[in-house]
Design a protein that fits this description.
Layout: H1 3-34, E1 40-49, E2 66-78, E3 84-90, E4 101-104, E5 117-121, E6 129-131, E7 135-141, E8 147-157, H2 161-164
Antiparallel strand pairs: 1-8, 2-5, 2-6, 2-8, 3-4, 3-7
Length: about 170
């Protein structure tokens, strides 16, 4: 075979491979766009603490590339009628400030010393959205030595955020 013929075959082969690679990229992108979003429901995430603030960066917020739509938040362990607590959105306990407060936890009816009553917030489907880097923080005042923050959520990839909203 001549050098010119081999070079021509090589060039056509390279162009053909480039074309196939481009077609595969196009198909993969189309399939990604058409893939239905995966909205996963987690009924009971738990973060505990011996005192306020209750914070856990790994368990209290979504991982990079995801968002959470928090559906229900429960704070257990309140011990007295004078206990106060609120739910905050932030990146660290330093974010426990009024402008980052989502809502106060209502004082449960019948709170008694040592009974460990719970208080709940029901934000609704889209009222409490956390993006990667954000986390739930519970803070307040309590004489309790064991507090439990429990929440249910829907998780999905950030790229499907617009499909989640009404």
């Amino acid at each position: 075979m001549s050098v010119d013929l081999e070079a021509g075959i090589g060039a056509r082969l390279a162009a053909s491979m480039d074309g196939l690679a481009a077609e595969l990229r196009t198909r993969r992108e189309r399939d990604e766009r058409q893939r239905p979003p995966d909205f996963t429901y987690y009924p009971g995430r738990i973060v505990t603490g011996n005192a306020f603030p209750i914070f856990n960066a790994e368990l209290g917020g979504p991982k990079t590339g995801y968002f959470w739509a928090v559906q229900f938040v429960n704070l257990a362990g309140l011990a007295a009628a004078t206990d106060t607590a609120a739910l905050y959105i932030g990146k660290s306990p330093l974010d426990v400030q009024l402008q980052n407060q989502f809502a106060p936890f209502p004082t449960p009816v019948g709170v008694g010393a040592g009974l460990g009553f719970a208080s709940a917030i029901n934000p609704g489907r889209t009222d409490l959205i956390l993006r990667d880097g954000e986390t739930l923080i519970a803070s307040g005042t309590s004489a309790s030595t064991f507090l439990v923050l429990r929440f249910s959520l829907i998780q999905a990839e950030l790229r499907f955020f617009d499909k989640f909203l009404p």
